[in-house]
Amino acid sequence: MPRVSPPHGQEPVRGGPGTAKRVYAWFEQRLQLEGPVKDAALHPVPRSTASWWYVFGSAAFTLLLLQIVTGVLLALVYVPSAGEAWSSLNVLNHQIPLGWFLRALHGWGSNFMVAIVLIHMAQVFLFGAYKFPRELTWILGVFLLLMTLGMAFTGQVLRFDQDAYWGLGIGASILSRVPFIGGGLVHLLLGGPIIAGATLSRFFALHVFIIPGALLVFALLHIWMVLKLGINDWPMPGRLVRRATYMEEYNRLAHEDGIPFIPGAFWKDLAFSGAILAAVAVCAYVLGPFGPSGQPDPSIIQTVPKPDFFFLWIYTVLSYLPPEMETPFILIAPLIGIAILLAIPFWAGEGEKSWHRRPVAVLAVSTIAICFAVLTQLGTSTPWSPHMSAWSGDPIPVRYLQTATPLVRQGAVVFQAKQCRNCHSIGGAGGERGPALDDVATRMTLDQMRFKVVSGGGNMPAYGKNLSAAEIEALVSFLETLHPANEPPAYDASRRAVDESRSQPNAGAPPANPAANRGTNP
Amino acid sequence: MSQEEQPLGGGGTQSASAPGSGDAARHDDPRIVSRRWLLFKAAVGLNGLVGIVLAVPVFRYLLAPWRKDSSYDSWVSLGPIDSFPMAETRLAFYKNPSANSWDGQTDNVACYVRHAGGNQFQVFAINCAHLGCPVRWFPQSQLFMCPCHGGVYYADGSRAAGPPERGLFTYNWKVVSGELHIDAGQMPTLSNSAKLVKISLGQGDCSCRA
Fold first, then answer.
1. Same domain, A476 and A377
2. Compositional bias of type Low complexity: which residue ranges (chain A) (predicted)?
3. Quick one: pLDDT at residue B1?
4. B208 pLDDT exceeds 60?
5. Do A124 and A167 belong together in one domain?
6. How many domains is chain A built from?
7. Is residue A226 part of a domain?
C-alpha cells in the first residue's frame, strides 16, 4: 500500500518534488494502477522478440489512436448530412486553418493503417504466431482486419463525393445479388430506396460509433492477450509447438533468456511508431488530403467512379471475372476467405513455426501479395474501361492520313465519330478495352474486319444497325491502311483468285502466281 | 471476501462449507438453492426479459427501411412528351418520390428517355445493370457505354458487350395529360428490377420495374 503522507520529519517544500510524490500517492491510493502497469511493463519477454520484425502490431495501434484523435478533430467541423457534407469538407480544405492537414492526416493515416495491419498479419502468419496458445489472438486479429477495412470503406463514403456516391451504388449492386433477401439488404444498407440522406447518416454512425467502438474493444483484448500469453518467441527451425509442453518452454525461455518488456523490447516499438507517425505527417503535408472530388449529384453523369486504393483489386476482379462466375464469386469467395483465416490456427495450431520449414505458407503469402499488387496495378490503369472522351479528344496521328484517299479519310472520320476510339487506341492514344488497331490490317482481312464491325462479337458491339453501308465501307477502307510500311495487309487468298480471274480475259483460269496466295493453306 | 459472502452452492457449483457453519451436507446438496442465488438468478431473468421486450422495438426500428418495393415506388412526371423528340434518346431528371429535406442533391435522379416512335417510349435507368455505374449515351454510335467495367448497350437498351448479363433496367411509363410519367422510387438493382427478366445475350428484354 503506498504511503499517503511523507515520513515523519520530512515535510516537503511546497511545490517541490515531495508534493509531486504526494499527489502521485493520492491518485495511486485510489486508482491502484501501479501494480498492473509495472507487471505489464516489466514482464520478461524472450530476448529474441526484441526485434524490428515485431513492431507492426504496436504501429497499427498507434495509427488507430491517430485515427481516433484526427477523426474527433474532423468531427468538430464535418456535417454528416447528405446536403451539407460535401460543402463542409471543402470548408475544411479551404477555409479552416490547417483543416486540409487534419483531413490529410486522417486520410493517409487510414492508408497506412490498412497497410500496416496487412503487413502485421503477414508477419504473424509467417512467424507462426497464430499457433497454440495464441489462436484467439489471431482470430481477434482477423476481425480487427475486417473492421479496419470496414473503417476504410465507410470513411470513403463519409468523403461524400462522386466516388463515394457511385461506390455506394456498386456496394448496393453487389448486395442486391444475394438470393431472396438482396432487395431488403440493399434497403438496409442505404437506409431507404436510394442513396440519400439516410445513407450518409447510417454510414456516419458506422464509421464514428459502431465500428470504432468494436475496433477499440477488440484491439484492447488483442493486446491483453499479447501481454498475458507473451510475445511470440522467435521461430527456430525444428523447435516445434506442442500443446503439452509449449507454455513451460516459453516461460523458461522468457525467464532464463529474457529481458524486461520495457525498455528491452518496447524501445523499437516506440521508435517505429514514431517513424510511422512522421511518415504519415510527411505524406499528409506533401501529398495533401484525398478529395473530395465532384459533388454527390447523381444527375452529373460525366464521372468515372473509382474505389480507393485498397479496394482497387476488387474493382479489377469484377471486370475480369466471367459473367456467370461473378455473383457466386463476390458473394461466396469473401466468406470462404474469412473462414480459412479463422480456421488456420485450428488446422495448424501445433508444429513448425519457422518459415524456413513452411514452404506452403511462404508460397501462399507471396501469391496473395503478388496477386494484390498486380490486380491493384491493373485497377490503377483500368485497361477495361472505355476512355469516354477519346473519340473527341485524341486525334488520329497525321502520318496515318498523309497519303490517304478521300475514302480512307472519311473512314477515319467515322472511326472517331462513332466512338471506336473509346475502346481502340491508335498511335498510343485511346481506350484499351479492345486491341490497339495500329496494325489491325496485318491481323484481319478486309472481309473479316467488315464482318467484325457489322456483327461485333466478344466484347465488341455490333455496329450493323448503327452504321450505313457507306460508313462501313469507308471505315473498313481506313482500317485496311493500318499496317506497318514493311508489312503488307492480310489478304484472303480466295478473294485474290477471284480478283485476278476477273481482271484476266480468260475468266476462271488459275492465278498466274500461286505464291501470291499468302496466308492460306494449299 | 468474508465467509458469509461466499456463494452457497448456487449455479450448480459446489462451494466448500465454512467450518462450524452448520450442516455441511446441506450445503453440498446440489438440489438446494440458496436465497441469494435464487434472487440473483431472478434478477438476471428479469433483465433478460426486459432485454427481449426492448429488443423487439429496436429490431423493428433497425429493419424500418426493409420494405416492399411497392411502398417506395410511385408515379413521377418527367415533363411534357414534347421535350422528347422522336427517335432520340434524351437525359431526363426527376426528384425521387421519397425525398427528405436533408438529401441535398442526392434525390435528383437521372434517367434516359427514348422516344421510339408514335406514342411509344422507353425509359432506361442511368445505372449499369452490372454494378450500377452511370452509363453514358453516345448518339453518334447509338450506344450506351459504362465507364466502370466497359458494359455497352444498344439504343433499345439491350446488351451489346461487356460484363452485364442483361439489358439496361427500364421504368414502367405512361402518358398522362401530355406528360410522361414513370413508376420510380428505388435505385434499380438486380434484386428489384430483374425478377421477371429472361436473361439472354443480345436482346433487350426490359419489361421490368425499376
1. no
2. 505-522
3. 40
4. no
5. yes
6. 3
7. yes
Element (H, E) at B154: strand B152-154
On chain B, the residues whose CB falls within 8 A of the CB of A173 are 127, 130-132, 189-190
Closest residue to A384, CB basis, from B103, B150, B165: B150
Instruction: Tell me, yes or no, whether A152 and A14 share the same domain.
Output: no
Sign of the alpha-carbon dihedral angle for B148, B154, B157, B162: negative
A442 and A361 in a common domain: no
Contact A84 B154 (CB under 8 A): no
Whether residue A133 is contained in a domain is answered as: yes
For the structural domain made of B70-193, what CATH number should be given?
A: 2.102.10.10
pLDDT of residue B16: 45
Q: Which residues of A touch B139 (CB under 8 A)?
A: none
Partner-chain contact B108 A298, CB within 8 Å? yes
Domain boundaries of chain B, sorted by first residue: 3-62, 70-193
Q: For residue A295, is it within any domain?
A: yes
Among candidates A166, A172, A456 on the partner chain, residue whose Cβ is nearest the Cβ of B160: A456
Which domain does A477 fall in, by range? 390-490
Q: Secondary structure of chain B: what % helix, strand, coil (to 5)?
A: 25, 25, 45
Q: How many CB contacts within 8 angstroms connect chain A with chain B?
A: 199
Residues A375 and A440 in one domain: no
Q: Which residue ranges of chain A lie beneath pLDDT 70?
A: 1-16, 505-522
Assigned domain for A522 exists: no
Residues with Cβ < 8 Å from A470, sequence gap 6 or more? none
| Alpha-carbon distance values, A346 to A185, A351, A354, B141 (Å) | 32, 12, 17, 58
Contact (Cβ atoms closer than 8 angstroms) between residue A419 and residue A391: yes
Chain position carrying cell 442465488: B37
Grid cell of B50 as nine digits:
426486459
Look at residue A6 in the predicted model and tell me its pLDDT: 46
Of A183, A197, A301, the CB nearest to B134: A301
> Is the ipTM, as predicted for this complex, more than 0.85?
no
Residues with Cβ < 8 Å from B150, sequence gap 6 or more? A319, A384, A385, A386, A423, A433, A459, B161, B162, B163
Q: What tens digit of pLDDT does each residue of A251-294 get?
A: 998 888 889 988 888 999 999 999 999 999 999 999 999 989 89
- Residue A400's domain is classified under what CATH number? 1.10.760.10
A464: closest chain B residue by CA: B141
